[in-house]
Specification:
Number of strands: 4
Number of helices: 5
Strand content: 15-25%
CATH class: Alpha Beta
Order of helices and strands: EHEHEEHHH
CATH topology: Collagenase (Catalytic Domain)
Radius of gyration: 14 Å
CATH architecture: 3-Layer(aba) Sandwich
Number of domains: 1
Distance between the termini: 18 Å
Largest sheet: 4 strands, mixed
Shape: globular
Strand order of the largest sheet: 1-2-4-3
CATH superfamily: Metalloproteases ("zincins"), catalytic domain
Helix content: 40-55%
Length: 142
Amino acid sequence: MKKLPIFFYQQDISYTLKHKNSLRQWIHQTILHENHQLQSLNFIFCSDTYLLSLNRQYLQHDTYTDIITFDNSETPNLIAGDIFISIDRVRENAKTFNTTFSHELHRVMIHGTLHLLGYKDKSAKAKKIMTQKEDEYLGMMV
């Protein structure tokens, strides 16, 4: 079986992701289910400080966030991107939402993937659809 072009990195933190192959399969199945193809996808796990600097530099937002997604694709329906995830923020959000760290991490990972698939979350209506899709794909995890 060919290895899927989904890669996991860490930046300025020490974090080891578990179940990488099953996560690759799950993300890939999500992309296929949405009628897209995968070119390459990078998940970069980092600290609050690192993600805050990206948020300031690229989005002109001076706030902490759990995720920033960069769409690098120049072809419709072809997924290529970088998804930066703050492990610090995921830990905090897991406590806030009374869920496990791994569940919150998977929710954030699929959230970034959904952004690359064209889903938005700026309006209340779009956010509702995004949350429904997150729940749908979280339910499809093996």
